Amino acid sequence: MARKFSRSNDDGVRKEWQGAIRTDPLVRGDMGRGDQPRRARIEIAFEEQTVLGALFGQFDQNLVQIENRMGVYISARGNKAVIEGPDDAVARARDVLKGLHQRLLAGHEVDAGAVESLIMMSNEPTLEGIISGAPDGAPPIMIRTRKKTIVPRSATQIEYMRALVRDDVIFALGPAGTGKTYLAVAQAVAQLISGSVQRLILSRPAVEAGERLGFLPGDMKEKVDPYLRPLYDALYDCMPPEQVERRLASGEIEIAPIAFMRGRTLADAFVILDEAQNTTPMQMKMFLTRFGQNSRMVICGDPKQTDLPGGSASSGLNDAVNRLDGVDGIGMVRFKVADVVRHPIVGRIVEAYEGKEE
């Protein structure tokens, strides 16, 4: 049951209609003593009531998450919600609720991760355009695949998704859990389905993550598949399993270690190199020079998580970034710890490790 509030609207407060949401303007009080922030109270009325259960969450868990993260108080009854607290936090919380409402109306799911992502982006001027489109009439930022429609969950993901459409070669750099590989695979699947490219090629170095696996039984595919499993996982999340298997069998989708790229020209293809920090400079040069006509190439990696002997000094990713940064047609997108969308605790873990190293 939604939590109830007993406060009534202030007399004379003008209503404003914004699509399916009606909001009161901010009602500002006097400054508190000392450095106390200005307080505000705002009411939102949602005209589309069929999505309110998903919007507020079971036992109002989405509202509680917004309260705890943003330092506001939210009370809800019927199709209305009242937000109270510091005026800047109230404005941001209103934008988060509007973004969640628009996401539900567009047919997207809302979970704790979606709430957290909108909270993180609430300080960004691009939040309004994620679902509704940019002010200049540009379409919303999203990737449509056969299984789902993917929208950005951080400000850097917005930049990354634009680069995936705009640039020929994209370097996605940053810590684990920021969506570098997943968004690249989703964009590749979308272009394969639309016919923009004829092939999807996924690759990564076959390097153990700090341990020796020894002899692996089976044929070549069975030997390298354990190294490529994260790519399979992203692929199956964007396409029905039967389509993945059919396209793998026909060669439209190819998943192979980077050693198999030598001597080839990758034309009419969307090519993704994952875990690129584990390439040597020569492997990276070899891979980049495979680029062919009507192709797009995405190189994903975390420069701080190298498993090569000698560490980051021997990494082909770091070498390529130093050489190619600023080259026309090559995009560089750098994710930060704040962009981690896997789970909030992952960001805190990454931050703790990186802070210790520094």
What do these coordinates show?
The longest helix has 19 residues, at 87-105. Strand 7 and strand 8 (149-150) form a beta hairpin. It is built from 12 helices and 14 strands. By secondary structure, it is an alpha/beta fold. 38% of the residues lie in helices and 18% in strands. Helix 3 packs across helix 4 (112-121). The model is unreliable at 1-22, 25-32 and 131-138 (pLDDT under 50). Strands 1, 2, 3, 4, 5 and 6 form a 6-stranded antiparallel beta sheet that branches.
- Helical segment count: 12
Estimate the mean pLDDT confidence.
Answer: 78
- Largest sheet, described in full? 6 strands, antiparallel
Gyration radius over CA:
24 Å
Secondary structural class: alpha/beta
The coarse silhouette is globular
Q: Helix content range of the residues, please?
A: 25-40%
- SSE series: EEEEHHEEHHHEEHEHEHHEEHEHEH
Strand tally is 14
Low-confidence stretches: 1-22, 25-32, 131-138
Our measurement of the CA-to-CA distance between the termini, rounded to an integer number of angstroms, reads: 48 Å
Strand content: 15-25%
Question: How does the SSE layout of this entry go?
Answer:
Elements: E1 16-18, E2 21-23, E3 27-28, E4 39-46, H1 52-56, H2 61-70, E5 73-77, E6 80-86, H3 87-105, H4 112-121, H5 129-132, E7 143-144, E8 149-150, H6 155-166, E9 169-173, H7 180-194, E10 199-204, H8 220-238, H9 241-250, E11 253-257, E12 269-273, H10 281-288, E13 296-301, H11 316-324, E14 330-334, H12 344-357
Parallel strand pairs: 9-13, 9-14, 10-11, 10-12, 12-13
Antiparallel strand pairs: 1-2, 2-4, 3-4, 4-6, 5-6, 7-8
